[in-house]
Amino acid sequence: MPSLPAWIRRRRTWLLSLALVLLASAGWKLSQHDDEPKDAAPLPQASAAAPAVPPSLDGIALAHGMAAAVRTSSDARAWGGPRSGQEATLSDRVVDYRIEARLDPVRHTVDGKQQLRWRNRSDREVRSVYLHLYLNAFEGEGSTFMTEKRQGFSFRTDVESKDGEWGRIELRKVQQQGRTVPYHFVQPDGGPKTDRTVVRLDLPQAVPAGGSTVLDIDFFDQLPRVVARTGHFGSFHLVAQWFPKMAVLELPGERGATEPRWNAHEFHLHSEFYADFGSYDVTLDVPEGYVVGATGEEQGAPRKEGGRSIHRFVQGDVHDFAWTADKRTQQPLTGRWTFPGSPEVTIKVLAPPEYAHTRPSVLKATQDALTWFSKTLGPYPYRTVTAVIPPFNAGEAGGMEYPTFFTADAYKTDKEGSFERFRLDFVTIHEFGHGYFYGILASNEFEEPMLDEGMNQYWDQRMLQAAGRRIPVATGLMQRLGINPSVDVFDGERIASLGNPPDGLGSNSWHRYSSGSYGSVYSRTATVMRSLELQLGSEVMDRAIQTYYQRWKFRHPSVADLRDVLAEVSGKPALIEQVFNTHVYAAAGVDDRVEKLESEEVEPPLGLYGPNGSEVTESLRSKQLRAQRKAWDKAHPDAEAKDGGALPYRTTVTLRRRGAAQPQTLIVRFADGSEEKVVWDDQERWKRYSWVKPVKVVSAELDPLQAQRLDMSVADNSRRLKPDSSGTRRLISDAGAALMSLLALLSTL
Predict the structure, then answer these.
(1) What's the CA gap between 633 and 648, in Å, rounded?
(2) Do 69 and 504 contact (CB within 8 A), yes or no?
(3) Most buried residue, 265, 528, 612, 665, by most Cβ within 10 Å?
(4) What is the pLDDT of residues 299-314, one digit of tens each?
(5) DSSP H/E element including 316
(6) Smallest Cα–Cα separation from 683: which of 663, 666, 661, 702?
(7) What is the DSSP string of 7-31?
(8) Sheet strands (E) in 341-392
(9) Residues paired with 114 in a beta bridge
(10) Dihedral angle over CA of 576, 578, 584, 586, nearest 10
(11) Regarding predicted confidence, which is higher, 552 or 735?
């Protein structure tokens, strides 16, 4: 996790990653099984001899396997143009799913039948379409997901899949108008041939421009033991990324596309998702006694048949569907929420017996988040929110978001003011917040994770800061001793963001130097946005983010579209361009400092500067200065520093830059209370400023508002002419925040 709040969010923190790296470098390894039977059958290999996949039938290309942050602005009419609210539907629906699914909770399987209607938005006929089969990431070590894990990347707590715990999705029938559809597994990002998370269907009947087609698909899921966002543990089932899901056909002017292209990436270790908006009508068949929660609104009471319970959920204008079923889940805690412009919202909190006591806290945090996001971005447009607290030992199911449905996290206590309560609230707020940044804005989490994870992290912290919340980091022993230190939420993000990053914020989710680099998307994006807020003003930043949301809701914006809105609303396009070029499209640290501060008397120059060109010698000047100082002292017997002296003083400040060039404000304070303010806003590696004043300088300070939140050290941002402890205090403050973050991590182990 990239920061204290980010490890709260999903345990994807840079501190945890760092701990794993340090342990690995010390020789620590996860347990390995070396007791393979000697007569075992040959293991499957990544078949180099696998038959070549024929080209698509229509020649429409796939998005590049290294696609990342978009630089080209989207067309104003992209995705059908801004949604005014007067349209028949909230989104421009592209897909329609009707799914029937039957859960076997003993074998942990799902039998599914799906009717998928897809609309071709392009101006050409389509003969080949692409589906995501995400569950195949867990069918074995040959998937892209598991290959990246073996290559040294880590996922949260790194739960290992043991014998009998793998999962998969199998296509058992694919038909178009009664005709069998041939299909081929493809690896758009150049992953191993054994990865089967993307499949291409070659349609017997072309879909004309503007036309639609219906695909009838029977599928079978073997759910894995909960390992990453989905799976089972005991009777608990989190069923996510479980059905064949249509990829996105992007058109010219959308996210940098110049020709129609399919955006379909393999399921990478750190990748999340991207899909078209549509409608879902899903029937779930589970044993009686199982409590079910799902995306959308349940249509009446469940139907009982032969010891089974049949539930039906419907939701429009979303781009995914997930559900849970567990016989241990307590009856849902239900609450209501209202807000102008939003329908009345029913909130359900599901939890197992061991965490049932935390349901009221999760309910309140959800209600608070609904209010904050509705006030600051726009009214919540759906009628339901379902929050799920996973059972003990199923933590990998926690901290994940789907439309109108999210999983929180589980803690033994939710005592007010405790670190555990803060984490519980933060995870709840963060996962709900994804309902806006991932759900309604629906950015491409494959290629531009900062638009969801990072921007959501920033807005969550804005909520907590507005509520006066700080991060309590006292351990049990510290609390018993009455020691209750806390950290400002954005200071926690800043501490986790420092250093020279190997990847820009706009890098995609999988092409990363390390898992820690992916994790930095959370804290570093939040810190960059906070830095911009301090430079632009909170009111301007609020208008910019709200404008971004209102303009791009239900439309899949890109990084370039966020950049454009920030530039437009702030009226400072050069600043925004500089920030994006430095931190989003590239990677650079920030480290400016006050290198030297001097204040010296300005003595008359030696040379031929006397009357009539006579020479001013050293002895003559010394004699004149003694007389001048004596006369001044006599005239000012009670003089203080603010009164100056017999001679003026030349103050010189030297600045040094060891990182990326960022606009910096320098404030120089003098003994008489006057100040000089300059802005250092060029590409120079150093700068020298000088003033002649009647008094000496007192101090020089770079970035007095600490707006440059990514500065690697604030202790060297200021100097005083006389020794002072302020720099030490700032250094201790940083060190203290880092120590508190570390203590907080240790308290969770």
Answers:
(1) 14
(2) yes
(3) 265
(4) 999 999 999 999 999 9
(5) strand 308-318
(6) 661
(7) HHHHS--HHHHHHHHHHHHTT----
(8) 345-350, 384-388
(9) 99, 217
(10) 170
(11) 552
Do the strands 95-104 and 278-287 form a parallel or antiparallel pair, or are they unpaired? parallel
- Per-residue pLDDT, 713: 83
Which phi and psi angles does 740 have, rounded to 5°?
-60, -40
Q: In 3D, which of 8, 23, 321, 28 has the Cα closest to residue 156? A: 8
C-alpha 609/C-alpha 624 separation (Å) is 14
List all residues 6 or more positions away from 346 whose beta carbon is below 8 Å from its beta carbon: 334, 335, 336, 383, 384, 385
The 10s digit of each residue's pLDDT in 534-593 is 999 999 999 999 999 999 999 999 999 999 999 999 999 999 999 999 999 999 888 899
Q: Which amino acid is at 414?
A: D
> What residues contact 240, with CB distance under 8 A and at least 6 apart?
229, 230, 322, 323, 400, 402
Ranges of H-type helices in 98-255: 144-150
Q: Give the H or E element holding residue 322.
A: none
Packing angle, helices 453-466 and 359-376, rounded to 10:
100
Q: CA-to-CA distance for 118 and 181, rounded, in angstroms? A: 15
CB environment 356-370: b (16+ within 10 A), e (fewer):
bebbebbbebbbbbb
Q: Output the pLDDT for position 606.
A: 85
Task: Give the model confidence (pLDDT) of 343-374 as tens digits.
Answer: 999 999 999 999 999 999 999 999 999 999 99
β-pair partners for 110: 103, 221
Token representation of residue 414: 């939710």
Could you give the 3-state DSSP secondary structure of residue 719?
strand
Three-state DSSP at 258 gives coil
Residue scoring higher pLDDT (1 or 231):
231
pLDDT for position 2: 32
* Contact of 386 with 350, CB cutoff 8 Å: yes
According to the model, what pLDDT value does residue 735 have? 55
Q: If you ran DSSP here, which 8-state letter would residue 440 be given?
A: I
Q: Shortest CA distance to 51 belongs to which of 185, 204, 173, 168?
A: 185
Highest averaged pLDDT of the listed ranges 16-20, 139-143, 511-515: 139-143
Percent of residues, the chain, with pLDDT higher than 90: 70
**Distance (Å, rounded) from C-alpha 162 to C-alpha 723?**
61
Q: Position of tokens 């006929």?
A: 125
Domain ranges of the chain: 94-276, 592-746
Q: Could you tell me if 590 and 662 are in contact, meaning their C-beta atoms sit under 8 angstroms apart?
A: yes
Question: How is residue 743 annotated by DSSP?
Answer: H
Q: Which of 310, 385, 301, 300 is nearest to 342 (CA)?
A: 385
The second-level CATH assignment, the architecture, of 94-276 is Sandwich (2.60)
| 510 pLDDT higher than 90 | yes
3-state class (DSSP) for residue 623: helix
168-176 vs 126-132, strand pairing mode: unpaired
Burial state string for 571-592 with b = 16 or more CB within 10 A and e = fewer than 16? ebeebbebbbebbbbbbbbbbb
Question: Distance between CA atoms of 566 and 548, rounded to whole angstroms?
Answer: 8
Which of the four pLDDT bands, split at 50, 70 and 90, describes residue 26? very low
255 to 126, 210, 569: CA distances (angstroms) = 20, 20, 21
Task: Give the count of beta carbons closer than 10 Å to the beta carbon of residue 632.
Answer: 15
